[in-house]
Every structure is written in structure tokens, then in C-alpha cells.
Specification:
single chain; 120 residues; alpha+beta; Glucose Permease (Domain IIA); two-stranded antiparallel ribbon; 1 helix; flat
């Protein structure tokens, strides 16, 4: 995901949904996400605006498939299938384990930051 500003697009957010799909949101008044941040469905990423080269406030929306602009209303999207049974249970256990590892790492980084502040 990229969140930035330039004189043509104004405030903009580009979201890479996979190696295939990218959505672009341009001319925002305010960006509410940062480059590299993960976003979730339904999350507010910015507010409608008129920044950059525009004649008035609006949202410029682009939908790209493999780098090619497509009509988001007519593009055929793949249907996902939910995990079930043993596959779902195995995924949930793996996810819990990884989250525990990430939480330990986060705590370690926080304690290092505390030590550095005390030392300086």
C-alpha cells in the first residue's frame, strides 16, 4: 500500500490487493493511512477532496488488473472458498502461534525502547 502526495494526484492511496489487483484513490483531502500499512475491508483510508490538479472536489477511483485499467463494475473477480474442518482448525492454530510470536517480539522491542530512553 502506498500513501503519498504529488502535485497531479494530490493526496492519494494505492492499495495492492494481490499480485493481480490494485485500486487507486486520488485527490483526497486527508490520507488516514501510511505507506506500508495493512488495511482492512471497511476501513476509512482517506476523505473526499480536491487536492492536486482538479477543478473541484471528487474521488478519482481506478481499478487495475495486471496493470491494466478495468471497469470495476464489470470485471470478473475470483470467488474465494472458506476453509472448513481440519484445514480451518490447523490454520487457526497456526495463526494463534504466529500471533503469540509477534506479541513477544513487540514486547521485546518495547522493552528495548524503554531501556534506550532510560540510558539516554
Amino acid at each position: 500500500m502506498k500513501s503519498a502526495y504529488n502535485k497531479f494526484n494530490g493526496n492519494y492511496v494505492f492499495i495492492r490487493h494481490s499480485s493481480t489487483y490494485i485500486t487507486k484513490y486520488l485527490h483526497l483531502t486527508k490520507r488516514k493511512v501510511k505507506t506500508g500499512e495493512r488495511v482492512k475491508q471497511g476501513q476509512t483510508i482517506g476523505t473526499l477532496g480536491g487536492t492536486g490538479r482538479v477543478t473541484g472536489p471528487h474521488l478519482h477511483y481506478e481499478f487495475l488488473v495486471n496493470g491494466v485499467h478495468k471497469n470495476p463494475r464489470t470485471v470478473k473477480l475470483p470467488q474465494s472458498q472458506s476453509l472448513t474442518g481440519k484445514e480451518k482448525s490447523a490454520f487457526i492454530e497456526l495463526a494463534k502461534d504466529r500471533m503469540a510470536q509477534l506479541n513477544k517480539f513487540e514486547q521485546l522491542l518495547a522493552s528495548i525502547g524503554t531501556i534506550e530512553r532510560i540510558a539516554s
